[in-house]
Structure formats: C-alpha cells, structure tokens
Amino acid sequence: MAVSxxxxxxxxxxxxxxxxxxxxxxxxxxxxxxxxxxxEDAPFIAMYPEGTEIEGAKWRLCAFLEQYFGGPTTYSEQRxxxxxxxxxxxxxxxxxxxxxxxxHMRGALxxxxxxxxxxxxxxxxxxxxxxxxxxxxxxGRPQPSPLI
Length: 148
Ligand code: HEM
Known about the structure:
Distance between the termini: 67 Å
Radius of gyration: 17 Å
CATH class: Mainly Alpha
CATH superfamily: Globins
Bound molecules: protoporphyrin IX containing FE
Number of domains: 1
CATH architecture: Orthogonal Bundle
Order of helices and strands: HHHHHHHHH
Strand content: under 5%
Oligomer: single chain
Shape: globular
C-alpha cells in the first residue's frame, strides 16, 4: 500500500501523547494559560522581544509542543529544526528565569487538569527541558575570582 511520506510526517500518531490528551484544543489551552500568566509577570515578559504582543510566541510554543508530543509537524515545516537551546541563546536564561517559566507552566498544567499520568509526564519533560535551557548563571551564584 502506498502511503504518502507527507501524510506519514504530518498526521498525528494515533498512539501519541498529543492524541491521548485531546489534541490541538488541549495544547492551545495550555499555551493560552501559560501566556495569560506570563504577561502578568512584568519582569519575566520583559525578556520576550515582542513583549506582551505574544501571538507569535504563542504559535511557536504551541506548534513546538504539539510536534514534540507526537502531533502535527507544522513547527519544523515552518521553523526548521527546533534547536531550542540555540534559539534561547539571545535571552538570559538564568536559574531564576527557569523558575519563573516553570511557575507559569505549572499553573497552566493545573488549569487544564490532565489525567495524572499525562500531567506527570509533561511536567517531568518541562522541568528537564527548562533546566537544559539555562545559559547564564544566576544572581546568587558566586563568580570565580579574577585572580585565579
Ligand atoms: C527556562 C526558561 C525559559 C525562558 C526564560 C524562555 C524564554 C523564551 C523567549 C524569550 C523566547 C522568544 C519568544 C518568541 O518566540 O518570540 C522563547 C522562545 C521559545 N521557547 Fe522558550 N524559554 C524557556 C524555556 C522553554 C522551554 C522549556 C521550552 C520547551 C519546552 C521552550 C520553547 C520555546 C520555543 C518553541 C520558542 C520559539 C522558538 C522559535 O521557533 O523561534 N522554552 N523562549
């Protein structure tokens, strides 16, 4: 049976986390809740180049997460390989920024009330991914002495 490679790559896998948690509606609700909370956090949202004009940022985060969790691959079709760590290099991602990001994402996950297994799976991923994005030491960390 001939299966077009396009449909292979773009159709959500039926056994994906994406499908299991409710597809696009769920990811859109998660990302809406994340940004609704983030825009209220003035020092945090100040690092976003488009500030509180977050429609573009919302699309990018939503499309990325849908793809990561086995949904449509629209993110890479439009943005190329995610290379998330590299794409975060222009921003000062300190441990404090990670904590704020995770705070907003924890609240967003709570708001969509996933079954515990999926909540834990996604939260575990977010914690690991956010830690991997850190590219600057925090305020509280001692700097090496210039003498040694
Ligand atoms: C650790 C704290 C984090 C901070 C402070 C942070 C901050 C930012 C900022 C300022 C942007 C640019 C906004 C824009 O797209 O216009 C961005 C983009 C993005 N972030 Fe994060 N981020 C963090 C963690 C994460 C994590 C954990 C993920 C995924 C699980 C993620 C996924 C993305 C994606 C997909 C984009 C858009 C990349 C692109 O296509 O250009 N971020 N982030």
